[in-house]
Write a structure and sequence with these properties.
- This protein has 267 residues and is mainly α.
- It has two domains: 167 residues, no CATH class; 76 residues, no CATH class.
- A two-stranded parallel sheet has the order 1-2.
- The longest helix has 34 residues.
Length: 267
């Protein structure tokens, strides 16, 4: 094998490895992303958010697109790695007689080496890196997503259309459900806002109050029972400033109001 072709194969292997890492990382970033933040950014007319909001409405198609791109990269990588590893492995096994066992052993060693490289550099590392601040990663790779995923997305749309048509012939319903936002998305957004804020303590307390309200349905009545002397409450005639300070200090979303004494709770 002459040097130019060897270098070309090496560069092609590197390119396939990078593409596989890109598709794997993008998949985990999309799955781990804050979907509510994407929709809120879309309302502000932010271009990346508008793009990913469309993909969010077609989640299964977009993830299938990423898997298709990853599989293509893996096939190219596997073929080229087999070519580049075959001669060195055969040379190292030259002391063995030429039998079917040698062929199997060469294939086994090729598979082990190729798989280890893929697992480390195209699976484990990208997924760890892209899982950190996934929304930011999606924004950074908006242009590569459009360039690489748009053509594949068209292919996936055609495949999905064909599948839907075939299923219709057999009278099997096929409908992609749209993503619906729930309490988990809202809680995720609040936690991100709380961890990323650089505002004063008062803002953090307000976020904590909101987060406590989201967790009400997971709390049992027994856990809410408080000894009388530990109850946070205010007299009906206390000032608004005093009550506000108690809200901020405790992080509670509600505080009891009594008239004259604690036995006469009015709200």
């Amino acid at each position: 094998m002459d040097d130019p072709s060897f270098l070309l194969i090496l560069l092609s292997i590197l390119g396939a490895l990078v593409l596989s890492a890109f598709f794997s990382g993008l998949e985990i970033a999309f799955v781990s992303s804050n979907k509510l933040k994407i929709e809120l950014d879309k309302k502000q007319n932010i271009l990346p958010a508008r793009i990913y909001s469309y993909f969010l409405k077609h989640q299964s198609k977009f993830i299938s697109t990423l898997l298709l791109g990853n599989n293509i990269a893996l096939v190219v990588y596997g073929i080229l790695m087999a070519v580049i590893l075959e001669n060195p492995i055969r040379s190292s096994l030259s002391f063995l007689p030429e039998t079917g066992f040698v062929e199997v052993l060469v294939l086994f060693i090729q598979t082990i080496i190729s798989t280890l490289i893929i697992l480390v550099f195209a699976e484990f590392l990208p997924k760890v890196i892209f899982r950190i601040n996934p929304n930011r990663k999606l924004e950074l790779f908006t242009v590569p997503v459009l360039l690489l995923c748009a053509p594949l997305f068209v292919v996936v749309l055609i495949i999905f259309t064909m599948i839907a048509y075939l299923l219709k012939i057999f009278k099997i319903s096929f409908e992609e459900s749209e993503y619906t936002f729930g309490k988990i998305d809202l809680d995720h957004y609040v936690k991100e806002a709380a961890s990323g804020t650089s505002e004063e303590q008062e803002l953090e307390n307000e976020l904590q109050i909101f987060q406590n309200a989201l967790e009400f349905n997971n709390i049992k009545a027994r856990e809410c029972m408080v000894p009388r002397n530990e109850i946070e409450a205010h007299n009906l005639y206390d000032s608004i400033d005093e009550i506000t300070r108690t809200f901020v200090k405790t992080g509670y979303s509600k505080i009891l109001i009594y008239k004259e004494n604690m036995d006469n709770v009015i709200g």
